[in-house]
Design a protein that fits this description.
Layout: E1 5-8, E2 28-37, E3 40-44, E4 50-54, E5 58-60, H1 86-103, H2 116-119, H3 140-152, H4 164-168, H5 171-176, E6 189-194, E7 197-200, E8 209-219, E9 224-233, E10 240-243, H6 244-257, H7 277-295, H8 304-311, H9 315-326, E11 339-340, H10 348-405, H11 411-437
Parallel strand pairs: 6-11
Antiparallel strand pairs: 1-2, 1-5, 2-3, 3-4, 6-7, 8-9, 9-10
Helix pairs in contact: 8-9, 10-11
């Protein structure tokens, strides 16, 4: 399997002796390990140096594969009689070259629809309405009528491979108004008007959930060990046992089904130290925060897959519910089919203003988060390095003063000597606290 490469987005200075790899903006790295944990990857630079670096500081380089199919062969009419048509062909090539120079930039054919000529006939919105969001229905008849002519000249059909996830999830069919599905009342999700604009409607009673009692268990006669947690919802107070892999499975299902709802991330995985008490407590706190956020969402909290996760204690029923969730037809773009909206439609200008404001908010937030991460990482390095060393340096000075004053054995000088030594020890402990605070 080919090694993946990433491009560095921000500079990162490694801490000496920590196994970290210093990287610089626009530098290319080769990934050697992704399962390091805690948001770190291991990679190799162009000089062959290997070390750890923050995952958030790089972006993966997307590989571009070969074209989906080779260009069509030339028609047979072009074979032979080349001398007879040579002069005419050269004149046509000259005219075409002049036309291209007049157009300016060269366009990539893959960026354009092969049916642009057909679609241009409908530039005046003459197609019948009926699609979602005010879009016109796809002009299937006209495209079919011209398909024979396209095949005659060997024109390639447009490929939607780059939108495969969008198409497979039903997003394209929904936007074009061609998606057909029967949605039961139990699957419907309402959007209602409020003082703050459209919001998700409430479904069911609010509830909470607790993650407690981590316990090391084993199966296959002790060959496989894991940590199991007790998950207890407040609506029935019946605990169920769940492993981290169950949380991971649920997270994947929620992301697939609710593509338009931000699902918070789970605590990071860890390769070593999984059974240490400190790590177990930290992971349990992270899982508790995760389920608490899910419980507060009016749609996700009342979904069938989340209810199955919270209530199913029988292994056979768990597998049945797992298969049902994995075969759910209303996932991704198809989930829009289950949404019922208010009868009063929104004003187009209002929607445009909201979209524009949200776009500005996202850009500003991205810039703020990126700058915040940079500042926090620099602060962490200062806590581990300069801050710690400065306090320990002050502590060392007071320790030396205490040792000097200890030469004075008079009883009246003993209190000052002890105060000097205690101050030096306190400074050293403060330095240790600075280094431990960022962990």
């Amino acid at each position: 399997m080919a090694e993946k490469q990433v491009r560095v987005l921000y500079d990162f200075d490694a801490q000496p002796g920590s196994g970290e790899l210093p990287v610089h903006t626009d530098e290319l790295l080769t990934i050697t390990r992704r399962d390091v944990g805690e948001g770190w990857w291991e990679g190799r630079n162009s000089r062959g140096e290997v070390g750890l670096f923050p995952q958030a500081y790089v972006e993966e380089i997307q590989e571009t594969g070969p074209p989906a199919m080779p260009p069509p062969p030339l028609p047979s009419t072009y074979v032979g009689d080349t001398e007879e048509r040579g002069d005419q062909g050269r004149r046509q090539e000259s005219d075409a070259a002049q036309g291209q120079q007049g157009d300016g930039d060269d366009w990539d054919d893959d960026d354009w629809d092969d049916d642009d000529d057909v679609d241009s006939q409908y530039s005046q919105d003459t197609r019948p309405a009926g699609g979602n969001f005010g879009l016109h229905l796809a002009n299937r008849d006209q495209r079919s009528a011209s398909s024979a002519e396209q095949q005659k000249f060997g024109t390639m059909k447009r490929s939607f491979n780059r939108f495969s996830t969008f198409v497979k999830s039903g997003g394209e069919a929904y936007l074009l108004g061609t998606a057909k599905a029967v949605v039961s009342d139990a699957d419907k999700v309402a959007v209602v008007d409020s003082e703050d604009g459209p919001v998700w409607g409430t479904h069911g009673q609010p509830f909470t959930c607790s993650v407690t009692s981590p316990k090391k268990e084993a199966k296959f006669h002790g060959i496989k060990s894991f940590i199991a947690y007790q998950v207890t919802p407040s609506f029935n107070m019946t605990p169920v046992t769940r492993r981290y892999k169950h949380f991971d499975w649920l997270h994947g299902r929620l992301e697939d089904k609710f593509a338009m709802i931000p699902v918070p991330p789970l605590p990071d995985k860890q390769v070593t130290g999984r059974y240490e008490e400190e790590f177990i407590e930290k992971r349990m706190a992270g899982l508790q925060g995760w389920v608490s956020r899910i419980c507060r969402h009016p749609v996700v909290a009342n979904s069938d897959v989340y209810n199955h996760f919270l209530t199913c204690a029988d292994e056979k029923r768990w597998k049945q519910g797992k298969r049902k969730a994995e075969k759910d037809e209303f996932v991704g773009g198809s989930f829009f089919l289950t949404i019922t909206t208010p009868e009063q439609p929104l004003q187009v200008k209002f929607v445009q203003d909201q979209v524009e404001a949200f776009s500005k908010f996202v850009k500003t937030m991205d810039d703020g988060v990126r700058d915040g991460v940079q500042v926090m990482l620099e602060s962490c390095k200062k806590h581990r390095g300069p801050y710690k060393r400065e306090y320990q340096k002050n502590g060392h000075v007071f320790q030396e003063l205490g040792n000097a004053f200890s030469l004075d054995t008079r009883p009246s000088a003993m209190h000052l000597t002890e105060a000097m030594k205690h101050t030096g020890k306190t400074y050293d402990e403060i330095g240790q606290l600075f280094a431990q605070q960022v962990r």
